[in-house]
Design goal:
414 residues, mainly beta, four-stranded antiparallel beta sheet, 6 helices
């Protein structure tokens, strides 16, 4: 798409947002179906199975990968009601849906997915559908669905106790919290423009929200993209504690357990920054090498403004795993020196798009969105140890612990 076309498309999206301003900010959740009673924690904790969840965005499915054997255990359909949802849209919302779909590059049904602490319920933010939903893993039954403010649901986070699901309502410049038992919206807090990632602090007392600005506008119009910031809120009161402002959008990030340091990728940056959260300043900027194909791209051709999009930290807190999205590699970087240990290179156009540390703390799982695969990289050796086939256009990954009996309800991966 040409730069002019992208700008025109962005203006169309803006018009759609204004047109939908009169619509209800968030419809009430559907009545919640009764959930199966959870087994006592003591009786299930040892039986739960470590998994990595992979949201297959275009498929509208979530893959469950065994974190130890690297086997694909099957998938769960999280858009079984797609046609019903589309038929229920009034003409104005359907037109806005089509604009968002165009901006997203097609069908993007799964943005994020988290598993309940008892391993039986899956919570999903459903991208272009602009809602969140919960599913019983064993039966695939939808337990509730809640439409969020605005037009698109983005990254999500689940509280440690499994009671609160935090989702970015990206076009409404806010994040909303949902009661996981009922799907009811329980609160919200303001963010920067186009809120993206949400994460809880290590002790659960804070929520960090990263905003990316309007990605459909070209880099030359960065001043029109809105506020790009990290919003830090009190997890109980949802009151904003502080904000950190950046010139460009904040992409995937990790925060050290002590809350002092953030490593973050930024829009257009072929690398990442080290940021002092106490002093409120960038300490170091690390520029990673371009591949020939990456170097040939114009910044406006980066996918959703992202040169690199995927960052994780190992359990020992001495290594980072970064996804080189336009460069088709995963890099393992040692901290505190921030020296590169090694690279895992992929075929051109693989589009590594997210990184998460596996439950073992020593492996990094990276989605290869254009190859419908997940690459597992060993932190210690910076070598790939497994490659797993998943669904269409995998993006976000999350770790979880699944109830073995619930896994029997999954559909085998084709």
């Amino acid at each position: 798409m040409s730069r002019l076309a992208r700008t025109a498309s962005a203006l169309a999206l803006t018009a759609a947002l204004l047109a939908t301003a009169a619509l209800p900010a968030a419809t009430a959740a559907q009545p919640a179906a009764p959930q199966a009673p959870s087994a006592p924690e003591d009786s299930v904790s040892d039986a739960l199975r470590d998994v990595v969840l992979v949201g297959n965005s275009a498929d509208g499915t979530v893959s469950f990968l065994d974190a130890r054997t690297y086997r694909n255990l099957g998938t769960l359909d999280v858009v079984p009601d797609l046609e019903e949802v589309l038929r229920g849209m009034d003409p104005l919302r359907r037109a806005a849906y089509e604009v968002v779909r165009q901006q997203a590059g097609g069908d993007k049904f799964v943005d994020d997915a988290h598993l309940s602490p008892d391993g039986r319920t899956l919570y999903v933010s459903r991208g272009n559908l602009g809602d969140a939903a919960a599913y019983d893993v064993a039966t695939g039954r939808q337990l509730w669905r809640t439409h969020l403010a605005g037009l698109k649901a983005d990254h999500a986070a689940l509280s440690a106790d499994g009671r609160t699901f935090v989702v970015s309502a990206i076009t409404a410049a806010k994040a909303q919290t949902l009661d996981t038992a009922t799907g009811r919206v329980t609160g919200e807090f303001p963010t920067g423009t186009y809120p993206h990632e949400n994460m809880y602090s290590a002790d659960g007392s804070l929520i960090y929200n990263m905003s990316i600005g309007v990605t459909s506008l070209p880099k030359a119009l960065n001043f029109l993209k809105g506020s790009k910031q990290v919003t830090v809120v009190d997890a109980k009161t949802l009151k904003v504690v502080r904000t950190h402002t950046f010139e460009h959008g904040i992409r995937p990030a990790v925060v050290t357990p002590d809350g002092r340091t953030m490593y973050a990728q930024l829009s257009y940056l072929n690398g990442f920054i080290e940021y002092d959260l106490e002093a409120g300043r960038t300490v170091r900027t690390v520029e990673m090498p371009f591949s020939p194909a990456g170097a040939a791209l114009e910044p406006d051709d980066y996918p959703q403004n992202s040169a690199h999009h995927g960052m994780a930290m190992n359990a020992a807190r001495d290594k980072l795993c970064t996804a080189g999205t336009i460069d088709d590699y995963t890099a393992v970087v040692s901290r505190p020196a921030l020296t590169t240990d090694g690279f895992v290179h992929y075929p051109q156009g693989s589009l590594p798009y997210w990184s998460v540390t596996g439950p073992d703390g020593g492996t990094c799982w990276v989605t290869l969105s254009n190859r419908d695969e997940v690459s597992v990289v060993d932190y210690a050796t910076a070598k790939e140890v497994a490659r797993i086939k998943v669904g269409d256009f995998p993006q976000r990954e999350r770790t979880g612990r699944a109830a073995p009996e619930a896994l029997a309800g999954l559909t085998p991966q084709e």
